[in-house]
Amino acid sequence: xxxxxxxxxxxxxxxxxxxxxxxxxxxxxxxxxxxxxxxxxxxxxxxxxxxxxxxxxxxxxxxxxxxxxxxxxxxxxxxxxxxxxxxxxxxxxxxxxxxxxxxxxxxxxxxxxxxxxxxxxxxxxxxxxxxxxxxxxxxxxxxxxxxxxxxxxxxxxxxxxxxxxxxxxxxxxxxxxxxxxxxxxxxxxxxxxxxxxxxxxxxxxxxxxxxxxxxxxxxxxxxxxxxxxxxxxxxxxxxxxxxxxxxxxxxxxxxxxxxxxxxxxxxxxxxxxxxxxxxxxxxxxxxxxxxxxxxxxxxxxxxxxxxxxxxxxxxxxxxxxxxxxxxxxxxxxxxxxxxxxxxxxxxxxxxxxxxxxxxxxxxxxxxxxxxxxxxxxxxxxxxxxxxxxxxxxxxxxxxxxxxxxxxxxxxxxxxxxxxxxx
Length: 422
Description:
Layout: H1 2-7, H2 14-21, E1 32-40, H3 46-56, H4 82-85, E2 86-90, H5 96-105, E3 117-123, E4 129-137, H6 143-154, H7 177-192, E5 208-216, H8 217-227, H9 231-248, E6 259-266, E7 280-287, H10 294-305, H11 311-322, H12 326-334, E8 344-350, E9 356-357, E10 360-368, E11 377-384, E12 387-395, H13 404-421
Helix pairs in contact: 2-12, 7-11, 8-9, 8-13, 9-10, 9-13
């Protein structure tokens, strides 16, 4: 249990403490993130699943760690109670019911005095299939930590240099003064431009919808190759285009504002792949809020995300996060939670390794995203085994956002069809 002992007493980063201190306005606005693993095969007995988790815990110090409210250092209990942390739930009847059960379980209140995560075995919704739902509080894990957990629990032994959880592009040379300057400007802009969702007829509420969309990853790749961007560019561009069409239905907006996006950048080093807490830098990008043709939309998105593609800028972001004062961490967190109508959150993650449980393959991985108070829409995407699955969490006070997942999928389809015609 060496890895577990290494987490005990370590300092928590300011952003982890800021996330820990957030008070949710409702069960729907809790800072819970996770994944639904769809598995082919007969559901295992719950005891077998618990034994499997127990055997993998030495490689997962985050699962034996928590941060007491107001504390500055992580606390590691001797052993998590797997009778509580690992449970099962029968899903009545049909595949469609799985989504509603997952939505219900995301409202689970995790304890203050124990590691804030849960794993559910879900079964009964389809013959010879089951699902594993993993949820954790965002202060305990970001998307990188989440990936390390599912790969460690249900993947082969993966060395740090091959992990999906870390950023592999850090340069050998130190960032330049210019790189640090760009990052400082980005941090200041993040805080100053937090409130930009002034949409008539909409109001923030404590309730959230949960929906997924799923497309072949090659559909994103073909668009990216055409315009010289990345799949992440296509993913964000299609969200922006979908939101622009949604805003276009609001006929009494005289001049639609730009769309504000909070785009987390992975800054987790390989040696930190199993550490608790967040290793991401929150950056903001702004995109046109009017519908554009595919070329215009892609060009504007590629231009906006260009700094995030620079390894030196990523290294400068990491240095900034390592030394950020607590007041700035709280201000940055408040740009995505707690303020009225904050930016849209959008993250894109790739799982590089095939997962399975006791020989039964994981055929799909569906992300679970949180949308804290003040966030009208939060989106998280997982690319796995040839498909990209996107989770949309929308505030019910914004009429029409509960269908934005359909618009996003249709946008990807239409852009691919236009490429084929041209």
